Amino acid sequence: MTSRIGVVTFPGSLDDRDAARAIRAAGGDPIALWHGDADLPDVAAVILPGGFSYGDYLRCGAIARFAPIMEQIIARANDGMPVLGICNGFQILCESHLLPGALTRNDHLHFICRDQRLRIESTNTSWTSDFTAGQEIVIPLKNGEGGYIADDATLDILESEGRVVATYVGPNPNGSRRAIAGITNARGNVVGIMPHPEHAIEALTGPTTDGLPFFTSVLTSLLASR
Amino acid sequence: MSETRVVVEVMLKPEILDPQGRAVKGAFARLGFEGVADIRQGKRFELTIEGDLTADRIVALETLAGTLLCNPVIEDYRIVSVEGAA
């Protein structure tokens, strides 16, 4: 049970298979979840993968947030189940109000696709405990609407409570406020990150293997909490 | 059956940067139209609703406008017209 991690496929999801592969590489059991199912099977954690759910119609993640499977995921996340949202998944978590703020169009308007250096700011989450605080990693970044915004009061709270999970190192790639690449909720079980750790889990296909600790971290934290 | 037409407009909040509007403004200048101080780009939803809009349905519509049609973190919505209502 503790190694069963669900990956939701929405219409337009792209990175669900890579997310499942990353779970397997970390030693977990990926469980495919379908957006239209109202029942959440026996999983210990859930990943909302990258892509363009529902074609990014209306707003990124806005329609996925109301998918049948999301009702139980939101309820379980509020009860402490680890949930990781990557890219489009991060957008869905913000639209679901599991995380504060919103993702908006990159300030330079261009889609961006490159290997991005990040600094891990918080290891106090279910998904980053296997990193060391301040560690710099390089994983792919690919998005058109990755600019993280929130009002100054919210940004101050995120920073003062150690809820900024990762920041961009070097030039800000998309206009994110305070160079924020990823955040967590107050409990540390829900994490949203714009770059893609699931694309950096082995030397053959990724620029690094720096993404793997996201997936080993959740397995470690699930074992610890059993 | 009677129909009610409702128009909902969604705009980014004034304090939120609108890079698309800024790009459109840049095109105005390139095309020789001077003096545009600002352009903000928004969305317009035209709803055709069967029957009359009862008070209950207006409340439900407001809820959906404030959750589905707009993200209240970054956007405001405005119901700009209701035609054919009882």
Molecular structure report:
The complex is a heterodimer of chains A (226) and B (86). Chain A is α/β, with parallel strands linked by helices and 226 residues long. Chain A has one domain (4-225): Rossmann fold (3-Layer(aba) Sandwich), CATH 3.40.50. Chain A contains five helices and eleven strands. Chain A has helices at residues 16-25, 68-78, 88-95, 152-160, 212-225, and strands at 4-9, 29-34, 45-48, 83-86, 102-104, 112-120, 136-143, 147-149, 164-168, 180-184, 190-193. Chain A is globular, with a radius of gyration of 16 Å. The mean pLDDT of chain A is 96. With 86 residues, chain B is α+β, with helices and mostly antiparallel strands. Chain B has a single domain, classed as Mth169, Chain: A, CATH 3.30.1280.10. Helix content of chain B is 31%, strand content 33%. Chain B is built from two helices and three strands. Chain B has a three-stranded antiparallel β-sheet, with helices on one face. Chain B is elongated and about 50 Å long. The mean pLDDT of chain B is 92.
What is this entry, summarized?
Chain A has 226 residues and is an alpha/beta fold. Chain A contains 5 helices and 11 strands, in the order βαββαβαββββαβββα.
Q: Mean of the pLDDT scores of chain B?
A: 92
- CATH level 4 superfamily of chain A: Class I glutamine amidotransferase (GATase) domain
* DSSP, total strands of chain B: 3
Number of separate domains of chain A: 1
